[in-house]
Amino acid sequence: MNTAKASKGLSIKTRRIIAHATLILITFLCLFWFYVLIINATRSNGEMTRGFSPLPSTHLLDNWRNLLAGTLPVWSGMFNSIFIATCTAALSVYFSAMTAYAIHAYDFKFKKAIFTFIMMIMMIPTQVTSLGFLQLIGKMKLDDTFIPLIVPQIAAPITFFYMKQYLESTLPLSIVEAARIDGSGEFRTFNSIVLPLMKPALSVQAIFTFVTSWNNYFIPALVLHTDSRKTLPILIAQLRSADFLKFDMGQVYVMIAFSIFPVVIVYLILSKFIIQGIALGGVKG
Amino acid sequence: MEKIKRKRGKVVSYNKWGYFFLIPFATVYIIFQLVPLVSTFYNSFFENYRSGLMQVGPNFIGLENYKTLFSTPDIWIYVKNTLIMWVMCFIPQIIVSLLLASWFADPQLRVKCAGFFKTVIYMPNLIMASAFAMLFFTLFSDSGPINSILMQIGLLEQPFKFLSNVWGTRTLVAFMNFLMWFGNTTILLMAGMMGIDPALFEAASVDGATSTQTFYKVTLPMLRPILIYVIITSLIGGLQLFDVPQVLTNGTGEPMRSSMTLIMYLNKHLFSKNYGMGGALSVFMFFITGILSLFVYQFSNKKND
């Protein structure tokens, strides 16, 4: 039987070699760009015009200082991005958990209908309602503020769905019953018993919501107009529309690195946890 | 579900709390999603734009915006561009993801450093798309590092103008999206493959099936639902293609509007406050994504039951 197998298909050894070679090639395809980014962030504009070199140079700090001395509000961009992403993650995760708990733990009229409705709107992109959204925040005098970027994320169907899946697999309702017998109010039960039990799901979704908000470009670019309120993706796009040939390329690379690496570092620390999280939820992207 | 029903008698007095806990979601959803949706529809029936400093409208014109939208060739060019770039990204993505997922899920193969590889392939998904596009713009510019490397190793004599070439630009957009999404797809497919009953693989191996045969006759048919889910969610994502081509081409969709996507077109209308046409375009996209969402809903529903 073994000989029959070998003659019909590739041997396990050959398959292992092919698999590993492909994986190494793909790893290269994923990482090469970031390698060039790091190298070029350390080189001066003059060095770069002379062509690519695979070795880093010594101008990282110069490029960084030049970038800060320039017109781009880098620090405020970073601060705004962190502020918006943190608030979004906190609100979105907390209220999604609350919504999931409402659907999971209680039995009321329209429960099925509400759940079906949320599932149906889950995949509708925000872009298709952005026109009405912009008009609305104009009327509410919220244009050029952070509120329209943060508060609407309280209603996040994908986060809700993940939380609901998690509750179904982990929260026995007998715990809720026990809390009731001990005289805990419903709101307190949710905050002090259910939420701690949901910690793994909360943190996975907090990371995803944070990253999505951090990277978001479409809506912030339409909402924020004042330079000091802009987030990093908008600044990057501005860099693109600046007459870049006159620009110092060293600064451009440092700016890109500055926007990318905070997320990469956090990801590398938490990667195992994040990758388990994606498979767990099944719905993302 | 049954658990809740059994306890119904005991819980019943608490059930009004369900509504209470739904208030934040419902309020925010109605204000920031439903109202804008309705007003987007409403806007699409009005003539409302700015020409220079003059504000025209809003005047009710019925379906005129839709007529204009569908009778000018623009929208069809952008639909075509969006779909071309999606296909160019999706076909390699699904092939590579299926291959990688089947390798990761195959216990016989014992992939070394699987954790490391998974970490690496998922990483581009978390990168800021606009920064990634800006990076590729600088790397692939006429005097950028890629041209410099290709000339140093003697593959090119003259720099290749990736961004002045229709297929060069489209390939770059598709390639970036491929890099950003294949890791995610691989992990979803892998989770699906892990869920297949191992007895099926054992039976196939006892019957003397090769790994290729097992893949086509066992793995693929068993993965069908999750594959359909991946295709449709990817198509919905593909229709939203914006950040990468917007930053790469500085919003122009150059060369010759060949990389202009539907959302870039919408973005243009929104920036120039052309609300009538923007509304019609939004409604068009709402229906397309809505129909596709119904398929996803059916899938998730099946999985839930």
What does this structure look like?
The complex is a heterodimer of chains A (285) and B (305). Chain A is mainly alpha-helical and 285 residues long. Chain A has 2 domains: 2-67, no CATH class; 72-241, MetI-like fold (Orthogonal Bundle). Chain A contains 15 helices and no strands. Chain A has helices at residues 2-8, 12-41, 45-49, 60-69, 74-105, 111-121, 130-139, 147-150, 157-170, 173-181, 186-197, 199-215, 218-223, 232-241, 249-281. In chain A, helix 5 (74-105) packs across helix 9, helix 10 (173-181) crosses helix 11 (186-197) and helix 14 (232-241) packs across helix 15 (249-281). The longest helix of chain A has 33 residues, at 249-281. Chain B is mainly alpha-helical. Chain B has a single domain (67-304), classed as MetI-like (MetI-like fold). Chain B has a two-stranded antiparallel ribbon. In chain B, a hairpin with a 2-residue loop joins strand 1 (46-51) and strand 2. Chain B starts with a helix and ends with a helix. The chains are: A mainly alpha (285), B mainly alpha (305). At the A-B interface, helix 1, helix 2, helix 5, helix 6 and helix 7 of A face helix 1, helix 2, helix 4, helix 5 and helix 6 of B.
Topology:
The complex is a heterodimer of chains A (285) and B (305).
Chain A: H1 2-8, H2 12-41, H3 45-49, H4 60-69, H5 74-105, H6 111-121, H7 130-139, H8 147-150, H9 157-170, H10 173-181, H11 186-197, H12 199-215, H13 218-223, H14 232-241, H15 249-281
Helix pairs in contact in A: 2-15, 4-15, 5-9, 5-12, 9-12, 10-11, 12-15, 14-15
Chain B: H1 2-11, H2 16-43, E1 46-51, E2 54-60, H3 64-71, H4 73-105, H5 114-122, H6 129-139, H7 145-152, H8 166-194, H9 198-206, H10 211-239, H11 243-248, H12 262-271, H13 275-304
Antiparallel strand pairs in B: 1-2
